Amino acid sequence: MILDALKLIQNNLQNYIIEVEGLPDIIVLNNIAMAEELGGSNIHMNGRIVISLVNLQEESTLKNTANYRVKNGQAVYQNPPTSLNLFILFSVLDNQYENALRLLSRVIEFFQWRRLLSPSLTPGNMENLENSKDFEICMDLYSLTFEQLNHLWGALGGKQVPFALYRARLVAVDAQKRQAEGPVITEIDR
User: Is 161 left (phi over 0), alpha (psi -120 to 50) or beta?
Assistant: First the structure.
């Protein structure tokens, strides 16, 4: 589901960049920490918007749901899905600083326009998703303090480039594995 969420974001953002800038294949899903290693001076990522997953967090408010449901008169025991918040870094690598800032502005304006993303709301072909189940994610701009910025870019091992950090809320991961199944309890004997 994590890969599907990132591919959904990549597809939607690429369609928007093509529409407003006319730049095809500019959005790449890659680890920004590898930018220096891939060709020395960002040859493979230069002039691109790089989408990287930098953290994930369980959404604890949705953790207390029932582990069973009644289906066709049977109680089906199954752990509830794990709901995640994905912290996604959008970095713009471009030798021309003005171009990088323009593209970063396009990323921010896209998510201002479309905060809610879903395969069913996405025009075009989304057959490259691994999970056929429909899902929704909500994108929120996430601000860091200067200290947190220093830690982030220090951990990534690179120099800071124009970027925006977003939190993709409520990406559900569900293995669809039943733990048990049995009849519904309808009365208690004393």
Answer: beta
